Amino acid sequence: MPDPMTEDRAAPDARIQGLLTAMERPLRAFLRRLAPTEIDDLHQETLARAWRSRHTFDPTLGSGRSWLLRIGFRAFLDARDRRSQPTDELPDHLAASTADPATWAAARDDAAVLLQRLPPQEREILLRFHRDGESIAGIAVELRIPAGTVKSHLHRARNRLWAAQRNGEDR
What domains are there in the chain, each with its CATH number? Predict the structure, then answer.
C-alpha cells in the first residue's frame, strides 16, 4: 500500500517539474530580453531557485508562469547587483602595482606562481571563467562535466589562491 505522506509530497514535485519543463522556452526568452549574454547562467539559477522554493508555489493562484518569471527576474537582479558591487580593496602590493610597472610585473609573476600550484583542471576552469570570460555552462559543455562540478572546481581554486596569498606563498 502506498504511503499517503510520500504521495502528497510527490504530487507537488511532479507539478513543479511539469511547470519547469513547460516554461523552459518562455523563461529563456524572458531572460534573453534581460541579459542576452547570461541566459544560460540565469536560466540555471532560476531553475535551482524554483526547485528550492517549490513549497511556495500555489497552483490555485494560476499557471505558475508569473511565479517562475518573478524568480527569474530576482535572479537577474541579484546577478546585476553582484556585478555592480565594488570589489574588496586590493592588497597593498597589488594596489601599488597599478602605478608602478615593476610592482605590476612582480604581482603578475606572483599570480603565475600561485596558478601553477593549482591542480590542472582547477587552473583551467579558473582561467577560462575569469580571464576568458566563459560562462559556467559553456565551460561545462566544453569539458563535458556537469555545471555543478565546474562551480565546485572554481570555488576550490579561488579558495586555494586566497589562502596561499594570505599565507604569503606567492613568492
Answer: 4-84 (1.10.1740.10), 92-166 (1.10.10.10)
